Amino acid sequence: MNELLADLQQRLHYRFQDARLLARALTHRSFSASHNERLEFLGDAVLNLAVAHRAFEALQGYPEGDLSRVRAQLVREESLHGLALRLGLPEALQLGEGERRAGGRERASILADALEAIIGAVYLDGGYPAAQALVGRLLEGVAITPSLAAAAKDAKTALQEWLQARRMALPRYEVVAITGAEHQQTFDVRCTVEALGRRSHAQGQGTSRRAAEQTAAATMLTQLTESVL
Amino acid sequence: MNELLADLQQRLHYRFQDARLLARALTHRSFSASHNERLEFLGDAVLNLAVAHRAFEALQGYPEGDLSRVRAQLVREESLHGLALRLGLPEALQLGEGERRAGGRERASILADALEAIIGAVYLDGGYPAAQALVGRLLEGVAITPSLAAAAKDAKTALQEWLQARRMALPRYEVVAITGAEHQQTFDVRCTVEALGRRSHAQGQGTSRRAAEQTAAATMLTQLTESVL
Fold first, then answer.
1. Whether A60 and A159 share a structural domain
2. pLDDT tens figures, A35-68
């Protein structure tokens, strides 16, 4: 373990005063009661601030909504998972026997959480500037541009803007069905757009009303852009 | 305005190097295109981290879920609104004519946003340590205790735990009606609990499914604890 920790500190370009913090950041709850979830809670907040600040500086003059979308794009699980792989976190994780056999070492959520926990550990060990610098190194190759905000724009927003640009009425969303047991419900949502006296529908499904609306909006947007209304 | 800003800096116990940042933090979008929303975005992240750190230290050994609930309790709009009033923010706000006439100076969301923007402005002006110290002063009188976590537990969680402790089945939530136009919808949710062959209902209303479920759960919990099922 000690050699793994030393290697990882090299890749992080950060040397811990208290290496036990790093060891803890790599410990999944399946391995020990001294696991990384509290550090992850802290690291998540550190990451959010460091990325918010980067977006704030990179996108001068852009509205809060763009900053918020860019941040969401940068801190989402898939992005963190990719960074965790590059840092070689799978080898360094401490997992319980069962979790290891179930492929936990490759699970995106476990890896993303461990990365957040490392950021939290650096914050405790070296203060905010050290953690901010680490986040800066992690995101070194990522250009923060307005197009990142546009790419991260959700389907409902994109649909709304598409319609507004054409002076069309806003879409309507209705839940047409909710099925399944509590905590496992599926929502069916219908999106309706009216323009020039014609009416178009698109349906979407999801595990929440919001998710279903997004799917319906994405389908509607595809329909609209691929055909004349 | 200059005297207002000077007074406010005294109450904040923070002197800005660049007082324009403070002026901007107090500017609502109804007053000027140079408004406070980007600063608010940054300040929200600063506040989240500073409060996460305080909860982390005050609640040693408590799980992440408790930290998260304590933080949510401390940074919610009502809490920030109270702090904004104590700082005398209503007088210092820059609002457009219409917003001022509509009572914007007293609106909780405008005041809470301005306070977050001030925290963001201090972060930019003096760095994270200065902003963290400000948050520390703002929360000086607030004891962060495990009971705060329990109090902050949401009604659905509280109901679920109450039922589980009595080995009763989990509640069911159903949307029974959705009314109103898009973005102004009202959800009616029915909560059903079954135990010992009897069935109890409680209804709740809210501007989201989640909010309506919380209201229904709170009503159900009151019914259950005030009577025998």
1. no
2. 999 999 999 999 999 999 999 999 998 888 889 8
Domain final residue pick, B152, B170, B186? B152
- Is B143 in the same domain as B175? no
Give the residue on B whose Cα is nearest the Cα of A41. Answer: B64
Q: Could you report the per-residue pLDDT of A79-128, keeping only the tens digit for each?
A: 899 999 999 999 999 999 999 999 999 899 999 999 999 999 999 999 99
List the single residue in B41, B49, B123 with the smallest CB-CB distance to A45: B49
DSSP, collapsed to helix, strand or coil, labels residue A116 as helix
In this predicted complex, what is the ipTM? 0.70
Provide the angle, in degrees to the nearest 10, between the axes of the packed helices A77-86 and A108-138.
80
Query: What CATH number corresponds to the domain at position B172?
Result: 3.30.160.20
| Parent domain of A164 | 155-226
DSSP B103: T
Residues 6+ apart with CB under 8 A from A49: A128, A132, B42, B45, B46, B48, B49, B128
Which is it for the CA torsion B22, B26, B31, B32, positive or negative? Answer: positive
Same domain, B130 and B186: no
Is A56 within 8 Å of chain B by CB? Answer: yes
Across the range B14-43, mean pLDDT stands at 96
Identify all chain B residues contacting A56, using CB atoms and an 8 Å cutoff: 38, 41-42
Secondary structure (DSSP) of A119-180: HHHHHHHHHHHHHHHHHHHHTTT----HHHHHHH--HHHHHHHHHHHTTPPPPEEEEEEEES
Same domain, A139 and A159: no
Q: Helix axis angle, A2-12 relative to A108-138, nearest 10°?
A: 50
Residues 6+ apart with CB under 8 A from A72: A152
Give dist(CA B58, CA B45) in Å, integer.
20
